Prior knowledge:
Chain A is an all-alpha fold.
Amino acid sequence: MDLSFFTSILFATIVAGTPLIIVALGELVTEKSGVLNLGAEGTMSVGAVAAFAVAHHTGNPALGILAGMAAGMLMSLIFAFSALTLVANQVASGLALSIFGIGLAAFVGKPYESVALASVVPLKIPLLHRIPVIGPAFFEQQALVYFSWVMLAAVAWFLYRSRAGLILRAVGESPVAAHSIGYKVVRIRYQAVLFGGAMAGIGGAFLSVFYTPMWVEGMVAGRGWIALALVVFATWRPLRVMVGAYLFGGCMVTQMFVQGSGMKINIPAQFLSALPYAATVLVLVLISRNRGTIRLNSPASLGQPFLPDA
Amino acid sequence: MNHRNFVLTILGGATLLASTPLLAADPPTKIGFVYVSPVGDAGWTFQHDQGRKQMEAALKGKVTTKFIENVPEGADAERIIRQLAQDGSRIVFTTSFGYMNQTAKVATAFPNVTFFHATGYKQGKNLGTYNARFYEGRYLNGVIAGKMTKSNIAGYVAAFPIPEVMQGINAFTQGMRSVNPKAQVRVIWVNSWFDPGKEREAALTLISQGADMITHHTDSTAVVQAAEEKHKENKNLYAFSYHSDMSKYGPTAQLTGTTHIWGDFYTKIVNEVLAGTWTGTNLWGGFKDGMIRLAPLNSAVSAELKTQVAKMQAEIVAGKLHPFAGPVVDQDGKERVAKGKSMSDGDLGAMNYYVQGVASTLPKR
């Protein structure tokens, strides 16, 4: 087994983990404000089809990403209106959004099913991509891969180092207290939900414009749900989201490499495919054992509706 | 409506129905199709829908067709099948294995409707089954791969280890090694019929591990597309499509493919049912019955190889060449078919092992 083997595993792991990081970071911010939006799968689907359509008509993948982002925000706006303004049940609204989004994307995307999109050339980072082994894996990637790293840093800084992030977390901990000292809880939650929608839309765009440059119904294939699990897996910490995403991606990629190598290793592929979910359950069990750790990171008001005038 | 009127209406309705064939100038017969996935642009359901369209065009004026797509296998399918029968369809095609029990159940409830179930094994007075010998096409794909490979490694992206998929992998391997004994086939199971991301990742993995002939038994075009992309770096990297011709997605990389052709069968069987000559079908057809076809061959395939493949196809049609003609030896060295014999349909339908030449291990059950 040579080094290029290792490089390809690393490369593929990063690619597989990228949409998960982007979507999960958005969901993390949403959940930190106390809102549980289960609509990621549907939002990603709509983002993917919007991005594909725009990238196809304009020939510009960057415009595609913007379209995916805008579509994601529009989708989350529907959720926000229902869950925040009308104070509907968040779980029900989120699930409805997912189902609606998958269907809407299939409907809108019908004419694009037979269209192929040129693949986008990766962006090489000067000098860094020459580092042996890790260079080609980390620094010859699509632009959105670098974007996921920048966003990771930005979200971590925002939540724990900025005043606005502190307010957002306060809203997620105790909307009543935040409201009583004058913060506009609903407005802040709207912004957090819109950010989550934008990120889910970009995650969808990554799939349809960069990862597999095509649109087909059902192409998101459960990645929205994995991203939701990832937030819990990461116990609402940004850095752990990245670790988790690469772990999830790595599990999938490694089992394929083992299968394809012709090595006589007898680990059932199904076991490796199930590993990330088993890991999520394990983490849930572990953090649930200690009430303190949960209270430390998970937003106390997660999923609870808030009515300012009540 | 009181009770007496109700009975009269029913009676009147029944009389009307019974006399309809005498009065009208043969209204078109309604035919229903049940699809497991959206029609889309390529893949299993797309090919069935092509077949439906071909049949409807061939029997213009005599039939009208209707399809319901994206019907989940299981209990919900029964409702859909029943509804088609109730709405007056005289023939119903259910095109996925998982509809078998539901189709059989509805068939007993509607003795005047004829049902056809694809890939299943339950038959009845008004329930026929049909399937295609996809492995014949796979064998020829393998022959081309064996001749054209430089690395002697082929990569196969597969969904689930069921007999139909195993037949394809093994036939491809048999074909490849019939012309190139050094060749080996590597398989990656993605545990999904449809996940373009995973299919692509599996194809790229196989390519990075040296495979220069790539094919798949999954439902999207991702594998052919991935090969087309990597063809720019390795001019000897080629792909074989499955279900549909995917040359639109891999104009330079797709050598050929195994395509499903249902139209001729649908036309023939509907004609038989309409004429009243149908007496039960269990058709498992291959090249001979026109149920599979090779996709157009890429210009990279030499004229000599083209002739050889055409000859072999003719031999398969004539019954002189069988992809699983003995000796067939499995991965562990056990002889599955003795020299001079060919594998029986029963053994084909129960295939659960790799033949020699597949370099991967089968996932344990």
